[in-house]
Fold this protein.
Amino acid sequence: MSIIEINSLTKVYNSLAVPVHALNGIDLSFEKGEFAAVVGPSGSGKTTLLNIVGGLDNSSSGKVTVDGINLENLSSSQLIDFRLRNIGFVFQAYNLIPVMTAMENVEFILQLQGKPKNERKERAEQLLTAVGLEERMHARPSKLSGGQQQRVAVARALASKPKFVLADEPTANLDSKSSENLLDIMEQLNKEENITFVFSTHDQRVVNKARRVVTIEDGKVKSDENKS
Amino acid sequence: MKTWLIFAWRNLWRNRRRTLITSASVFFGVIFAIFMGAMQEGTYEGNIQSIVQFYTGYAQLQHPDYWEEKTLQHTITPGDSLLRAMQDDERITHISPRLEYFSLASHDENTKVASIVGINPEMEKEVTKILSYLKKGQYLEKGSDGVLIGRMLAENLGLETGDTLVLTGQGYHMVTAAGLFPIKGIVDFPSSELSKTMIYMDIERCREYLSAPEMLTSVVVMLEDQEQLQPVENTWTQKLDPEKYTLMTWREMQPEMVQQIDADRASGVIFLLILYMIIMFGILGTVMMMMAERRRELGVMMAVGMKRIRLVAVVFLEMLCIGFIGVISGILISIPIIAYYVDNPIPLKGKAAEAMAEYGWEPFMYVVLDPQIFINQALVIFVITIVIALYPLVTIYRMKEIDALRA
Ligand SMILES: Nc1ncnc2c1ncn2[C@@H]1O[C@H](COP(=O)(O)OP(=O)(O)OP(=O)(O)O)[C@@H](O)[C@H]1O
Ligand SMILES: [Mg+2]
């Protein structure tokens, strides 16, 4: 069974005078251990797709199943809990809680899961080391570079041992070197720990790192390319 | 819990100035409310003290019908044992037995209606301030013939100390009462009402004059303060034979005073309500700004799995902190200041002082240090915080992750 199953997914935004058909029938599935990029021109529906898969937004029609659970069947508070236990998120920017240190930002997730103090600390240290931030664990986000902040976000996304990580343009605000560095770390975590990543991007170099590239245009899957 | 507290605390210092300004508004509001409360209650306490020391005492033991109809038919004859039992009550500081009735007072061609009060001079001077009002002559002695007379009554009758006053009237069972009494002293009561009517004499002489042996119209009861009144009333109402006795409190004897205090308190409450409204909108404004600024952050926290109720709790904790910084600093600052003024009542001058003297009140502004006032402040701010917490509660519960993240 695929970890993410998307069937005839559509999304229509009715907030404007003219309804916007952001997604027009998407059929996709992602397997455990994938390292997949979702690409496409601006406005093609990448963010919309990732948000619905992440349970942050609801669809207009179609079905999204995560690990066998139909997201539509979950209430808004059940969804919060579901995300906590199953999905890691990396957003484009301003991911972190500014009054918490890098360490506390990672611990935060474990705290929400009710993990005891020593376990939290150990895991947060381990994750921050994995993303190469062992030296900066006690710095607040404002004292970290954009790339370092995104690495903390990745560490946080992994804290709860999620089934997969969704990252919507995680490198959009980073220079090319930091982008590459972040992708290397993600790739390494994917290879060594078999963590599933689905990320959207505009950056060709980031796309090149992906083992699978899903191209979306006008809310439809235009191509789905497996490079491995 | 500790983590969330630290989290809330750090959030507060993100915008230090705003937090301090909001806390300061609470602080000043609380200080103001505390001072107002302390002065109000102090004034009431002072007024009550004055009025009870002035004449009525905190309570009076009377015949059940005496207050309605002040005649010699409604006297009491408590034995020594009852009086002693009252004196033995620790909460009762002093008692003073009285026999009061009306008579005509004359001198030369002039005649006035006077209020005759038979007292035990030693006991009465502990209960009222009569001794301090004595202007000329001497205070009464036990068993002597002399009387004390109000200054205005003395003037109206053309009397001086050493002159002789003629009293005529009715005694017990309509017996004619008449007697000659030398003026021993002139008492300048601050109240013209009393100054125009009062004549004090030794209780034994009074009983003779009114042919009312052993009788009393009242026993004045003094207490340490107002607090003791209710318990004392409870005890004695149980002990006393309701056919023969009743314990009238100053509240019953001075209903206008009670009304005045109640009305004053009510107007104070309105004032405080307005003050609290201002504080409330101050905090609300801060909370609204805080929520708007942190919209995206709240969205992220919800996206990664923080329950709404927890978010509300953190914001609530922050608000509580803001409120309590204000309340606690306000209380800490006002306690020593109020404590100082408790020992050093603020003297009043000018018209206000004169007006108060007219009523027989000491021209001082009193304050009280009543723990209840402080507790109330903390409670009010707590309640205000809870009410304001509705705003983040509703906002967070209506917030959709997706909209918050886009902010
Ligand atoms: N809240 C909204 N209300 C109305 N229309 C929206 C809303 N969000 C997105 N859209 C529209 O839906 C379409 C898909 O938007 P989406 O953000 O998913 O695109 P995207 O592929 O992520 O673009 P980009 O690469 O610029 O981030 C666009 O036409 C966009 O204008
Ligand atoms: Mg996008």
Summary: The pocket of adenosine-5'-triphosphate (ligand 1) is lined by residues A 13, 15-16, 20, 22, 40, 42-48 (CB under 6 Å).
